[in-house]
Specification:
alpha+beta, outer membrane lipoprotein receptor (LolB), chain A, 11-stranded antiparallel β-sheet, 4 helices, about 20% helix, about 40% strand
Length: about 210
């Protein structure tokens, strides 16, 4: 069960996906919505939230997310999952404390880069996809030249009290093996001070803290 949980969590860091193309009919509206998403991401310098992460088999993990732009995020999983995922501005690191293994990828090579550094690729690769609900905005981000980097499908809910008038509600990942990973957020709080120390981690291989 623990190894299955770790596999689900690892999918968050490594999730090549299949893109879906938005309709061209509402191009003006889509452009406006994409600008609103960019404004929200840029205005929300920090965010903390609880999260629930689930796969298509219904297995669920919970934890706490801490984000600081540009480039930093921490997924602290529930106590019985010996895994930590941290981005420190340069690398996205997955630390498996059960087997004392550390894996790292450039942040820019992860689909999470669209969330962590919107200036990097949101304008070039972000596409608004119709949800059929005026209060919900979906944006898919994928670099067509690097499909191996994956696609991140982000869901925002219009909320006048949130930065830029939008609240990041969830995101969905679908990998090349048709494995779906969904992350839903709760109790989002924005722009409170977050120390860079929040993105340090203890190396299980015996090295000092990173």
């Amino acid at each position: 069960m623990v190894r299955k949980s770790i596999a689900i969590a690892a999918a968050l860091a490594m999730m090549p996906m299949v893109a879906s193309a938005p309709s061209a009919i509402a191009a003006t509206s889509q452009s406006s919505d994409l600008a609103h998403v960019a404004a929200h991401l840029k205005a929300a310098n920090t965010m903390t939230a609880g999260f629930t992460q689930s796969d298509r088999d219904g297995q669920t993990l919970t934890g706490r997310l801490t984000l600081k732009r540009p480039g930093r995020i921490r997924f602290q999983y529930q106590k019985d999952v010996p895994l930590l995922i941290v981005a420190d501005g340069k690398a996205l690191t997955m630390i498996d404390y059960e087997v004392k293994q550390v894996q790292r990828w450039p942040v820019a090579n992860s689909p999470l880069s669209a969330l962590l550094d919107p200036d990097h690729n949101l304008a070039r690769y972000g596409k608004v996809v119709s949800t059929g609900n005026d209060k919900v905005v979906r944006v898919d981000v994928r670099d067509p030249k690097h499909p191996e980097y994956g696609l991140l499908s982000m869901i925002f809910v219009r909320n006048a009290t949130a930065p830029g008038g939008l609240m990041l509600d969830s995101w969905v990942a679908l990998d090349s093996q048709n494995n779906r990973t969904t992350v839903r957020l709760r109790d989002q709080k924005f722009n409170a001070p977050v120390s860079d120390n929040a993105f340090r981690w203890k190396d299980p291989r015996g090295a000092s803290r990173r």
